[in-house]
Automatic annotation (TrEMBL):
It comes from the Bacteria. PANTHER family: ERAD-ASSOCIATED E3 UBIQUITIN-PROTEIN LIGASE COMPONENT HRD3, SEL-1-LIKE PROTEIN. InterPro entries: Sel1-like, Sel1_AlgK, TPR-like_helical_dom_sf. It comes from Proteinivorax tanatarense. SMART domains: SEL1. This is SEL1-like repeat protein. SUPFAM superfamilies: HCP-like.
């Protein structure tokens, strides 16, 4: 019986996989690998219920059911072997990436035969030739020692039969067949390129170029132009593109001209021609014609910048703004030394500080900043803050103190902070107060608020609520929302001033409109209890909601109370439960107690006595009196 070419190839495919399985498993399990290892393993695999949904289960089961259970090595086919070698981790056969790729190509080839119907003669020849090429590649990948003697020669013999036109080719010439095979190999090389296998892709294109395959000649030109796998070589790239052009590919004309222009610009740039230096910088920065190289781009921009090129300056600034450190140094030095721009030490300092912000280990930039900051107090303060952020408190103290002594208010306030917390200097609350007050007297609002706090708590100074009130008032006069809110609380409680609910309401309103969450909560209380204004539960709910949206747990709890009693909203126990739950997550003792009530009596949720007790216990442990009485009725803990 004479077999067709396709049938012979399919037999070779199966034979290759049979040989490879035998080669690999006999190395690992000895001569009786089939009887003593493979068959028992496959039987155990199919009997394991956990493998039922695995794709390999069907393939292994099909193998066992061949020939009524008379197991034979000849029953190993591509499908079974692929499952075994590629998809079964328990077999523990270690393959390199190129080996897996070779096996996968053969698996795909076998599938292609299964799906190939009504093929034209040329397509059938292309499929056969592609499979034979993949078989040869696989054998070369694994080594001829892994297959039966003579298989490689049989494949080469079949290749000649496929390529020799017969009546089967339906009049197609050998040239067309070879062109189709070249196209297939080109596509394979492109796939390898996408997967990062540059070496193999390059080798295929070299071989195809030697056979006059123009697309591969162009791709090799790209390799040399862009430095893919090989070193960038513009001359070699131009030669390859011109070869492709001679073969009739006119689309490469533009890139040839661009590369020749690049060579000319390079020559003229070396000679000092400004326009060529600038153009060369653009080419290297964009990385379209040649590999992107910011260092070379910056080098040529600097050359052009030294000739006062505004376009080059703009390009350098753009590189610096993109975060390219070397360009940032060029910009900083340009302002510092007046290179291509007007000398401006303040701008230079800003640029050096930008470098430090991006990379705090840049010693050169740090030294420049230190040198430039000796000029003014603000720069000294900024350097101190830089060191403080790095937790180098001694250096922070040194620079902030110098700035404070030179009269910079922000530094005075910061120095007060350092003394207050003993950072970089021995803790001294009296000195902390002194420097904070100096900053406040210069009109620094946050310092005025801080002095108010120090007087309120008696920190570094004798406690004095009236003095505290006055400092908060000075800060509030500058529109400080926090101070306005605290003034409202002073008026509400009569701290340092006569109690006045109307004034409290006024200050809470000012601070609340600035987004102060505590002030919004306090304003809600004013409307709820009619303090300083008429009782208005709708307004009460409105301000609780604003504060609650900023995660103020007291407002969240009170909002839940409003839903419980229907004050300003429709009574809704589920909404009450929701807000109590939110506030309880923040460990608000009142909210925990109210949430306990919800669980105990089923308000807005199911009755759950166990959860109720947990909530009461947490509330009691946080000191809420009503919860303590409920959990510890005798007063004990």
């Amino acid at each position: 019986m004479i077999l067709s070419t396709q049938e012979r190839i399919l037999l070779l495919l199966n034979k290759f996989f049979q040989d490879l399985v035998e080669h690999k498993l006999s190395e690992k399990h000895g001569e009786k690998w089939f009887e003593q290892y493979l068959v028992p393993y496959v039987i155990a695999y199919t009997q394991d219920r956990s493998n039922k949904n695995n794709k390999n289960f069907e393939k292994y089961n099909a193998f066992l059911n061949k020939n009524n259970g008379n197991y034979s090595k000849k029953d190993i086919d591509v499908t079974f072997a692929s499952a075994l070698l590629l998809y079964d981790d328990q077999i523990e056969l270690e393959f390199e990436g190129n080996e897996k790729n070779a096996l996968n190509q053969l698996r795909i080839a076998r599938n292609n035969y299964g799906h190939a119907t009504d093929l034209t003669a040329l397509h059938r020849i292309s499929l056969n030739s592609k499979t034979l090429i993949d078989l040869k590649n696989a054998i070369l990948t694994f080594g001829k020692e892994s297959i039966s003697p003579g298989m490689f020669e049989e494949i080469e013999e079949l290749e000649q039969a496929v390529l020799n036109p017969t009546a089967e080719t339906n009049g197609h010439t050998r040239e067309k067949i070879e062109e189709s095979i070249c196209d297939q190999e080109y596509n394979r090389a492109e796939d390898l390129l996408k997967k990062g296998n540059l070496e193999e892709a390059y080798a295929i294109h070299i071989e195809l170029d030697s056979q006059g395959h123009t697309p591969s000649t162009i791709r090799l030109g790209d390799f040399y132009r862009l430095g893919i796998y090989v070193s960038s070589d513009i001359d070699r790239s131009v030669d390859l593109y011109e070869k492709a052009k001679e073969q009739g590919e006119l689309s490469v004309s533009e890139v040839i001209e661009s590369l020749k222009e690049l060579k000319q610009n390079s020559k003229e740039a070396e000679e000092g021609k400004l326009n060529s230096q600038f153009k060369l910088g653009i080419v290297y920065e964009e990385g379209k014609l040649v590999p992107q190289d910011k260092e070379k781009a910056l080098y040529w921009y600097q050359k052009a910048l030294s000739q006062k090129s505004l376009l080059a300056r703009n390009r350098v600034v753009s590189l610096a703004e993109s975060g390219y450190k070397n360009a940032q140094y060029v910009v900083a030095e340009a302002y510092e030394l007046g290179r291509g721009v007007e000398k401006d030490l303040d701008k230079a300092l800003v640029e050096y500080e930008k470098i430090l912000y991006g990379d705090t280990e840049e010693i050169a930039a740090l030294e420049k900043v230190i040198a430039l900051t000796e000029r003014d107090a603000e720069s000294q303060y900024n350097l101190g803050i830089y060191y403080h952020d790095k937790k180098n408190y001694k250096e922070a103290y040194k620079h902030i103190k110098r700035s404070a002594e030179n009269g910079y208010a922000n530094a005075m306030n910061a120095l007060g902070y350092l003394y207050g917390y003993g950072q970089g200097v021995e803790k001294n609350l009296e000195t902390s107060f002194k420097w904070t007050e100096k900053a406040a007297e210069q009109g620094l609002v946050k310092a005025q608020r801080n002095v108010g706090l120090l007087y309120k708590n008696g920190t570094g100074v004798e406690k004095n609520l009236k003095a505290s009130f006055n400092w908060y008032k000075r800060a509030a006069e500058h529109g400080d929302g926090k101070s306005e809110r605290i003034l409202g609380q002073f008026y509400k409680r009569g701290y340092g001033v006569k109690r006045d609910y109307h004034m409290a309401f006024e200050y809470f309103q000012k601070a609340a409109n600035k987004g102060e969450a505590v002030a919004q909560y306090e304003l809600g209380l004013c409307y709820g209890f009619g303090q300083g204004t008429k009782t208005n539960h709708t307004e009460e709910v409105k301000w609780y909601k604003k504060a609650a949206s900023q995660n103020n747990s007291d407002a969240q709890h009170n909002l839940g109370v409003c839903y419980c009693y229907g004050d300003g909203v429709d009574k809704d126990y589920s909404m009450a439960y929701k807000w109590f739950f939110k506030a309880a997550k923040a460990k608000n003792p009142r909210a925990l107690y109210s949430l306990g009530n919800c669980y105990e009596y089923g308000y807005g949720t199911y009755v759950n006595k166990e959860e109720a007790f947990k909530c009461y216990k947490k509330s009691a442990d946080l000191g809420w009196k009503r919860a303590i009485e409920k959990v510890y009725p005798t007063g004990g803990s």
